[in-house]
Amino acid sequence: MMVCEFKPGLDGIPAAQSSISSVDGHSGILEYRGIRIEELAEKSTFLETAYLLIWGELPTSEELAAFESEVRSHRRIKYRISDMMKCFPESGHPMDALQASAAALGLFYSRRDLNNPIYIRDAVVRLIAKIPTMVAAFQLMRNGNDAVRPQDDLDYAANFLYMLNEKEPDALAARIFDICLILHAEHTMNASTFSARVTASTLTDPYAVVASAVGTLGGPLHGGANEEVIQMLEAIGCVENVRPYIEDCLERKAKIMGFGHRVYKVKDPRATILQNMAEKLFDKFSPDKYYDIAQEMERVVEEKLGHKGIYPNVDFYSGLVYLKLGIPTDLFTPIFAIARVAGWLAHWKEQLEENRIYRPTQVYNGKHSILYTPIEKR
Ligand code: SDX
User: Fold this and answer.
1) Is 221 in the pocket of ligand 1 (CB under 6 A)?
2) PROSITE patterns attached here (predicted)?
3) What is the pLDDT at residue 101?
4) Strand partners for 259
């Protein structure tokens, strides 16, 4: 019998062959379809990047215009979905609301025509178009308000901020938000993408694929860390408290949120871009009281943990950007999901192209040949 070495967390085990994105964790390089993330952040838009990820090439202007127009025309959600969302408890976490709503889309569009490119495109468009509407709708509904209708003359990012705040956003704020979506759109075989691929491999519908990935993204070791970073900065309170806070974490062997990564052993390139964008927002609007604390954290963590390759990851500075955009803390992870749906769908499509159901093995370390003990003898 072949004995395989057990790798907790599948560390270093390839789970798929993929041409969607690549990470060089020692040089801090991230590419989508071979294009550096810095270049996409500067020159692309989220919808163009989503197209690139899903269909493998940058679109021509006609292809992009057609895709944008399809997404625009599918932004609304059915009244039965919003009625269902109104029944969600307002104290529930928006990630749970999003997972339930994404799964509910499958009730309406459940036909599984996975060999038909029209079905694939339809599902891609619907999910990319409707997820932001559902996130914004839950935010308004839990505060006792009706959801705001998408506004057709606004682009993807501006429309989301409009639906959330009921007013058109500042142009710089909207562009920075769009860049955030580009940065979060895809990241190789992370936990939620793996989850999406496992679900996809059973040939279920794409709404179930996205719902399972949303559930996986929410945990504090993954996308949920962005929310926890802000709670941590609030708890630290001032720059003087940073060093004792970190020393206490290290003594308790507690994880410092927003730091460390399975692949990056240097600062995550997305964290650098997000930090620059946070600074742009502070310059235009007002400085942020937590930014000095965050910078001091980065210095002290590097001093204490740099030798282990622990540096800020994507979740460390994103929250400061979102806070400045007036977004409530518990929407940070749903916003990560709005962006990552592009990556999940690219992996869904790629998985279907050469599918084999995921069925790994295990290292059994339990007993054998135990006799059943009748209940009265236990
Ligand atoms: C995302 O995978 C992706 O690509 C994810 C992501 C994406 O775009 O999809 O990039 C998004 O999920 C970012 C990560 C957000 N999570 C956090 O910020 C939570 C805090 N970070 C960690 O818990 C941790 O670094 C992980 C979960 C991100 C990575 O976990 P690993 O690879 O399993 O590493 P580990 O927990 O086994 O730690 C290895 C060593 C340990 O020290 P030793 O026991 O070897 O001495 O590094 C230490 C850890 O104690 N360590 C940390 C630390 N992260 C790792 N120590 C203190 N604080 C940390 N944050």
Assistant:
1) yes
2) CITRATE_SYNTHASE
3) 97
4) 312
Joined together, the tokens standing for residue 282 give 């502070």
Domain count, the chain: 2
In this model, does residue 1 exceed pLDDT 70? no
Q: How far is the CA of 255 from the centre of ligand 1 (A)?
A: 8
| Summary mean pLDDT of the chain | 96
Asked if 71 and 131 touch (Cβ cutoff 8 Å), the reply is no
- Is-catalytic flag, 261? yes
Q: CA dist 253 to 12, 225, 335, 359, 362, Å?
A: 24, 17, 30, 34, 28
* Distance (Å) from CA 262 to ligand 1 centroid: 6
Q: Say whether both 236 and 342 belong to one domain.
A: no
Query: To test ligand 1's pocket by mutation, which of 217, 226, 313 has the most ligand atoms within 8 angstroms of CB?
Result: 313
What residue owns the CA closest to ligand 1's atom 5?
190
Other CB atoms within a 10 A radius of the CB of residue 29 amount to 15
ipTM entry: 0.98
Q: How far apart are CA 257 and CA 231, in angstroms?
A: 10
Q: Are residues 115 and 158 in the same domain?
A: yes
Considering the domain boundaries, does residue 301 fall inside one?
yes
222 is catalytic: no
**Interatomic CA distance for residues 188 and 75, integer angstroms:** 27
With a cut of 80, say whether residue 134 has pLDDT above it: yes
| Atom 55, ligand 1: residue with shortest CA distance | 260
As a whole number of angstroms, the distance between CA 321 and CA 327 comes to 9
CB atoms within 10 A of CB 25: 16
pLDDT at 4: 74
Ligand 1 atom with the smallest distance to the CA of 258 is: 18
Residues 178, 155: Cα–Cα separation, whole Å: 9
Nearest alpha carbon, ligand 1 atom 43: 308
Q: What is the pLDDT of residues 67-108, one digit of tens each?
A: 999 999 999 999 999 999 999 999 999 999 999 999 999 999
Residue 9 lies in a domain: no
Q: Ligand 1: does its nearest atom lie under 6 Å from the Cβ of 310?
A: yes
Task: Indicate which residue of 178, 261, 268, 347 is catalytic.
Answer: 261
Helix (H) or strand (E) holding 310: none
- Whether 133 and 274 map to the same domain: the answer is no
210 and 256 both lie in a single domain: no
More confident site: 57 or 288:
57
